[in-house]
Amino acid sequence: MPAVDWRVTRIARRRSPVTRAQVETVTGRALGLVGLVFGAQTVPMALEQADALVPGAGIALMAVLYGAIVALAVATVTKIAVRTACFAFAALYALALVAWPFLVENPAALDGGAPWLYYLCTVATTAAVVAMPPIWAAVYTVVVPAIYGAVRLLPAGGDAGPLLSVLDALYSVVLGGVVLVIVTMLRQAAKAVDSAQEAALDRYDVAARLHANEIERVKVDALVHDSVLTTLLTAAVATSPDQQELAARMARDAVRRLDEAGATGPRALDRVALPVLVRRLRAALTTFNTPFTVRTVNAGGVELPVEAVEALYAAAVQAMVNSLQHADEPPLSTRRELRIRGVRAGGCVIEVADNGCGFDLARVPEGRLGLRISIAERMANAGGAARIESRIGHGTTVTLAWPQGAGGSA
Fold it and tell me: Is residue 190 a contact partner of residue 20, using CB atoms and an 8 Å limit?
């Protein structure tokens, strides 16, 4: 039996070589680093070509694009609003490229050189790959270099001639296409790994529970044999006061041990990564007709017991179902959010919030089991806590925390 326990634990804690979250993190941070390097390389050229632009336009253009690059790098490092920062840079770059011919006041000052924007084209196409769905990223990867090729033909773009303009545009398309293919393939492979890992964890969860139940059954059987039956046999043959007192002490000890066994119960000791819970909640959201805005913070490196994951998942889904059933107040539209936050290495706080009609907690009937049983008691039984805040006309927020007190929750 110990050898089996060791093997199961090793299988459960084995990490997948790559996950979707890891792919997004690595891609984003690589983009942030490349953006800073390419941006720094273009600064001297941008300063030289500023004289060819309308007064003030060169500095303004540099401030906007370099500021967007710095914001993108910060977002990728902190993993906050990465797609928003990437989309913003891609959009600003496209606008700057379109505006370039109108900003050039003295084309002769360019001396036939390529606009400094060209050297940020790969950064922009990669940002589009990170921020957009594959089809729109592919469109961006083709359209933006084509716009640059058209600009290059103009005097404001260096009057390069058709051949050089087409070659420059094709070079950007090829680089952007390679990045798009690589990132898309990595995402698909990571998605398959995530699905396989989640399925394996689900199977392991069932096996772990069965194994825990079997251990508990063996323990209770041994307890009954060693304590209860022995106590009954001792009491049956007790004739003297000393023997009866011994039987009474044995009976009290057997009752105490049975109570302790019942209070302990079977528990799954294995831990599950918080991103697995995040994926399960996102999958649950796909079954709803009404969208939730999902925000995830500090999920990496956080692991929770299987029992806590199951309680958080079931309570969060129940809270979302409650919001869908009761929060709407026609004709107003209701915004709903699911916020998931990792707390240090072994804690989690989930908030299900809406700005709907709200309700008075004091007037909830005792017979309504959704809040009391499905949320509050489920979290309490798993060692966590649930807090419900609601006011009529001001929406509802359900906060789930594991363990109790995580993230400052009551």
Answer: yes
